[in-house]
Amino acid sequence: MVTESPQKPGRGKAVSWLRDNRVVRSIFRRGYPDNDLDRAAVMFSNFFLHVLPARTHVHSLKPTYTWGLGVISLFLFIILLGTGSLLMFFYVPSTGRAYSDMKDLQFVVSYGVVLRNLHRWAAHAMVAVVFLHMCRVFYTASYKAPREFNWVIGVLLWGATLMMSFTGYLLPWDQLAYWAITVGSSIASYPPLVGEYIRTLMLGGDTVGQNALIRFYVMHVIVLPGIMMILMGVHFWRIRKDGGLSRPPAPPSDAARGEAAAFSPHKTYMLVELAEGKTPMVDAQAPEEEVMSWPHTVFRMLVVFVGVVAVLSAVAYFFDAPLEELANPDHPPNPAKAPWYFLGLQEIVSYSALAGGVIVPAAAIIGLMTIPYVDRDPEGQGTWFTSGQGRRITLWSVVAVIPVVLVLTWLNEHYAVRILVPGASQIWVDLLNPGTILIILFAAGSLYIWRRTGSSRMGALALYSYFLTSYLIYTLIGLYFRGANWAWIWPWQATGLH
Amino acid sequence: MTASMDEQTPRRRMLLGLGWISFLISLLGPVLANVRFLFPNVVYEGESVLKLDSLEKYTVGSITFFADKKIVLFREKDGFRACTAVCPHLRCVISPFVGAPGASPDILRARCPCHGSTFDGRGQVLGGPAPRGLDFFLVTKSPDGRVVVDTRKVVAPSEHFKL
Q: B95 vs A352, B28, B72, B162, CA distance in Å?
């Protein structure tokens, strides 16, 4: 009847049968992987596991190297797909119904409020975790050859994550949604020549209305998730093809020194019979530096997944996602604030829409994408902050930016162009504002460090740290120090309006 | 493909090039058509010619704020003026103008709640990030004696509809 499997002492017959019977074998082809041969085979023969290698380098499993951020991003995305699909059963993207559907989810639908909370908090978490993942990859110099292109894919995924959040923001059709999208789509109209076309394309008209709602909905539930899934597929595939996660170059092992010629330390994907040229080569690694992916990688990922679900469930249970009153196209809330991850941008936009809405974001995205092609020195790959010098430069870049940003903010409050010259031409406002000045200072500072140290990596570390720190400060200013009419307030003066 | 490009005859290379060019051109049409498809030809977003109350309802020196129509109507001793209530920075609705009744337009002030741009009664930017001033619209009278504002026609801020 059923193939007899060797019975282990102390284990019930029922458990063994559950693990290995004809049906299980028809699905998994093999019994439970309890020996290295089956552990390797399961990674090859299981569709969902074959993304991972059969053996994993121990460095890739160090929690203090990756902090699990990439894997957490993936799990958050999966949770968002699940909760989002369920929410779609109760949500109709119509200006007349959207808001009352949200209220129904909150008060009428069983577990509706929990699902909405999970979806909202997972989205916030994903924005944060994807950004932290990018910081990890940057500070460990993992964008360097051969991983340049995967870094570019990663920057695109970060942009797509922000767009997912932005499009999802309109769907509840409350005050926050309506005015955040009014402001956001107006920022999109600032690029010269194409700006107004981009805005019309986004809104399907000239105001945020039904056309805009259905466009944002389609982008949110079909177009952007589709793009993200394709990009994620490429992103993960490239990790494997580029030789796994980055790590410091290993000192040559006994095997690599040729003392044991029994096996080659180089593992290649062999296509020699079919294609000419070099194959993507996995870095020299000795077997003793690797562990079986089953169970070491697979179960770590499972633990991380359970942890993510546990934390999110707790947050979703105790904290409700905000929902303001119904969208009112006549009156913006005062202050009208963007979601927290765009507040830094809104602060710079409040100086000049061209600087904050076009120049700074374009400089940041182009800068991020070109970093691996400018900083080509393989120095420090796989080591946090590259070296002691890199550590110091990162620290001092962060420390130096804080007073510069604060002084510029203070100057802008008291001596902005239009305070000195009321009615001054827009060109001066676009040129002389903290956003534009900071970009020039950042470029100059990082070029100086590049020349001074002779290392492009040190210049890149400084530049990234400048942008990161200033953006964090502006986010905090937007969050806690801006009140009615976007005037400066102290946090204890806040009126409580989110 | 075993023969490299150098070994091919010029005629063959030319035909191959023509093939590629026609292929790319044939892609251009569908791409442009799909992009054009996304730009609406008709939008249903309310009226652009706004009919307000009868002329006498607005006393001299009054400033009426129409939040729903997103315009501001000034009744001055020279006649009527109307400007947009949408901030040219990022399209928030500005707050109503403040100032003593009958005050000169230079003294009037309106602020935008989103990023703090300030405007005077001539629509000029005094402070904040707004890239230009508020647009003023053509004011006329309907046959039944009501004020009509045509938001499609931008006029100089000093232009009045005289009675």
A: 20, 47, 10, 27
pLDDT at A170: 92
Number of other CB atoms surrounding residue B126 within 10 Å: 18
CB contact under 8 A, B113 and A485: yes
Parent domain of B110:
49-155
CATH of the domain at B88: 2.102.10.10
pTM, two decimals, is: 0.88
Same domain? B65 vs B104: yes
**Closest to B119 (Cα-Cα) out of B91, B158, B88:** B88
> Which residues are CB-contacts of B44 (< 8 A; sequence separation ≥ 6)?
none
Give the CATH number for residue A132.
1.20.810.10
Residue A311 and residue A128: Cα distance in Å, rounded? 15
Q: What type of residue is A360?
A: V
The ipTM value here is 0.86
Q: What is the pLDDT of residues A13-65, one digit of tens each?
A: 888 888 888 888 888 888 788 888 889 888 888 889 989 988 888 889 999 99
CB A332 to CB B89 under 8 A?
no
Environment class of B89 (CB within 10 Å of its CB; exposed 0-12, middle 13-18, buried 19+):
buried
How do strand A281-282 and strand B71-76 relate by DSSP bridges? unpaired
**Nearest CB to B93 within list A200, A209, A331:** A331
- The SS3 call for residue B64 is strand
Rounded CA-CA distance B139/A309 in Å is 60
Residue A188, min C-alpha distance to chain B (Å): 10
- Whether residue B96 lies within 8 A of chain A, CB to CB, comes out as no
B31 & B83 share domain: no
pLDDT (0 to 100) of residue A260:
42
Distance between A197 CA and the closest CA of chain B, angstroms: 9
> Which one, of A399, A384, A383, A416, lies nearest residue A468 by Cα?
A399
Of B116, B124, B129, the CB nearest to A353: B129
pLDDT given for residue A279 in this prediction: 46
Same domain, A271 and A318: no
pLDDT higher than threshold 90 for residue A106: yes
Evaluate whether residue B44 is within a structural domain: no
Residue B16, in any domain of the structure: yes
Q: Is B70 on the interface with A (CB under 8 A)?
A: yes
Interface test with A, best of B115, B119, B151, B152 (most A CBs within 10 A): B115
Report residue B72 CA to chain centroid gap.
Answer: 15
Q: Shortest CB distance from A205 goes to which of B43, B70, B91? A: B43
Residue B69: partners with Cβ closer than 8 Å, 6 or more residues away: B50, B52, B149
Whether residue B92 sits in one domain with residue B20: no
Residue A379 lies in a domain: yes
